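WARN retry 2 of 3 for item q-0093 after timeout on previous attempt; input resubmitted unchanged.
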Amino acid sequence: MGIFAFVLLSSSLLPFFFVLSYAADSIKKSESLSESITLVSKHESYALGFFRPGNSSNRYLGIWYNNIPVRTVVWVANRLNPINDSSGMLMVNSSGSLVLLSQNRTVAWSANSTKQALNPIVQLLDSGNLVLREENEEDPENYLWQSFDYPSDTWLPGMKLGWDLRTGLERRLTAWKSPDDPSPGELSVGIELHNYPEIVMNKGTEKFFRIGPWNGLSLSGLPDLLKENPVYTYDFVINSDEVYFIYNLIKNSVISRALLNETSSLYERYIWVSEDKKWSLYFSMPKDKCEGYNLCGPYGNCIIGDSPICQCVEGFKHKSPDTWNPDEWSKGCVRITQLSCKDKDKIGFAKFVGLKMPDTTYSWVNGSMNLNECRVKCLNNCSCTAYANSNITDGGSGCAMWFGDLIDIRQVTANGRDAYMQNVYIRMPASEEVNHKEEKDKQKMKVIVIVVVAIAVVFGVLLIPYCISKRANFREKMENNVMIDQNIEGQSEDMEVPFFTLATIVIATNNFSSYNKLGEGGFGLVYKGTLIDGKEIAVKRLSRKSGQGLSEFKNEVILIAKLQHRNLVRLLGYCIEGDEKMLIYEYMPNGSLDSFIFDETKAKVLGWSMRFNIICGIARGLLYLHEDSRLRIIHRDLKASNILLDSKMNPKISDFGMARIFGGDQIEGNTNRVVGTYGYMAPEYAIDGLFSVKSDVFSFGILLLEIISGKKNRGSFHLDNTQNLVGHAWKLWQEDRPLELIDTCLKGSVIQSEILRCLHISFLCLQQHHNDRPNMSCVVMMLHGESSLPKPKELGFFVGKKSTSSSENQSSSTNEITITMLEAR
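OK item q-0093 returned
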């Protein structure tokens, strides 16, 4: 960035410079900037001056935001040559160069401008750019030197990341070594120049993360750029003079910056939240394991969600199939059938959609060729292993070809915008069975049509009596009011909540940005969103691979629409479009209960009075579900993660996807589909499929113990041979040592009689036989009463282990994972 020379400046020149004594945005040839003053840009957006980072005693010249209370440095001049005292001085010397002087007037840093200025002026712009220019230059952007050409760890709006091909200048981000040391760390990011340029993050000299080449709409490995966002716009420029990536903010009122973080090895984007007076993380990269460079080796396709995550591209097999483990993944895959260059008729190309383009180090690009010409050229070159359109705008144009093994491939998605993804065509034997091969699809079309027609006829004949039977059963169920399971279109008028369009939700959640992600439940992700009117919402987006289908979705919509209670989360609406099924809830700013009671730091926020209020609120919510609502509802998945906390820490029961409705005087039911969470299930439900309001009472008893102890029921206790929290608590109770169970952070805030009463109530709720457990109306009375309580009988200690006498599909789970289990009965 600068030239670090140690040249003594003649003391005779010093009288010709005077130090600024006022805040200005520029210095001229006769002026200098010392430790006592800062430059402030015209509209006071940025400041330039001397600072000391973290706990360091070293001094640096830097630029930081001037209009926010947290000093955030965005550029450092003398990163490699700190000043160890307060003698620093910035000035324009007699030759028109910008120099930073340290003790004994040695040059600690200088701006290496290519031209000498006659009447130089150094100015700090409102973009955060420090520039050196001629004072009377007609073109105000004709800079002799600018700090934007020499970025530190921060990428600001309007700053180019990339190359000036005319001068060979590379603009590259480099992380600070630590918060106390702004000298260049190992982590850096820039554009790798070759035939098909792409953005690459390095750790030292090794590639760490490759974002992929520009395809005309987005970066190949970052389809999130396809999403519209309210923060910034971007552009990727490739011409004979420059190759660079740039972004600009949409609104001037928004303050956003991107930077490299050496500590976390991440590229991070932040937005300043003035209300909270802090930087808020907008998104970061790499975001998952698949973004690690070449994790799966040649022809390996990294797929998040698969096990293992490293799979082979179709037409290839693991190089070491017998020992395919993380240590072997980098060996990659080899062809199932070897290729021969002699007979072109036996060579074809398989089309793959949704892949990040392979590493472009060994690639070739021609912007004027069409895709068919590209195919022919690749086919005629035995070394060509794949080809693609280099630009997918306006239907696709240009030719990109790869030579040698294809590496650093991963599966990416565009969230319904696959039409905007690049297709890559990989060289294959013409006889190879590959799902995406267009040529074979055409050849098989006639056969497929004949087979489909034949199957449809046979299936139709068999289906008619089955449908008649199912229709009769369906009518009977509806008449008994046992299950809500009718067509979603037919019941839309009974939903009692608004329908939201997918477009509305996409805008509200910033296209399901990772920055908006609140958490992950058993059936999908939950995102925070903000509607156009400013109302905050929580969006539960059901995963397409989840066990919850349309029936559970309808169940949850209809149930919650009919429920109105201060201790139940409020449903604001729903969305069904294509494969998307979403529930829109009121936003709970404090998240779920489990994030507090099981976290050593956050648990301190919940004193006993607040925990007791949460216990009573949950009890009131359950009482409403069981007895006071117009429907009798069994939740069946009551647990700490399904208790949400509002801004005042009031509890609200959420997630009714597993809930069941009882009609008339029905008080219990039986199922061959056991759903819920191990660690919270009542024994009779987990073992025999028998559920009732007492199943929820048992789960409430578990919750009581967890709130009192700050421990999870499962996985927390292995001492004294107890299997779970219930066993441990019961042992302490029998040994007259119940206070030892109490969360240590509650000491000093506990009302002993109250907490012992709650503990006693929990044991009554956890009794083995469901008829012995109190109903929720009794529980609420016991919580607020002072009368003596009955002695609890034997407790239910079910923890997820089951008899295998019947042919069962068994499953186990952690305390937090919702399970669905089908049993033969």
